[in-house]
Amino acid sequence: MIAIAIDGPSGAGKSTLARAAAGRYGYTYLDTGALYRSIGLFALRSGIRPEDREGVPALLPKLELRLTHEADGQHVFLCGEDVSAAIRTPEVSLAASGVSAQGPVRSYLLELQREIARRQNVVMDGRDIGTVILPDAQVKIFLTASSEERARRRYEELCQRGTPAPYEEVLADVIRRDREDSTRELAPLAPAADAVLLDTTGLSFEESFQALCALIEARLNGRAAK
Fold it and tell me: Strand (E) positions, the chain?
């Protein structure tokens, strides 16, 4: 099986580009961030702070997470409810950061993610795919962009979804999320030693996609030639 790991900070465009790459190569796409967002949403709905290191683990036995792949992309079901849209708000984004810093949460999702990669070719994106989840992935890419660029993209996405937020607020959330993700003790956001950096600041989606595919193909062709 072939695994393509795409890591990077919030708002870097990982999900959109990874989904497109999976479609191009006929691989299964897995947005791991959606899983953490779902747990963050469950914590918020349960009245538990995402940083609560006793309350959040206590919720895990009550969770039921299921992924499906439909014509319009990956859908996430939380206890039978399709929460694919509900997990895309800034509030849930921050909650995801809080729950993802907890060992029990990461352990809860680790085997689920690895099992998917064992069964099929995958493009998986997140924060620690190349470093922790799939350390043996054949392709590892660290996708990034400036905080201002990522905030602008997220702002436009929220407007398109009909859930707008002030740009300044979105930028503050991006900066805060970066700080929390990169300084947490457990699996902090960082490129794998053998990952290739791709900075898409100032690039259009098509330019970013072509750059991503060029890196993927170079890695896979190089591997095949060995």
Answer: 3-7, 28-31, 65-70, 73-78, 81-82, 122-126, 139-144, 196-199
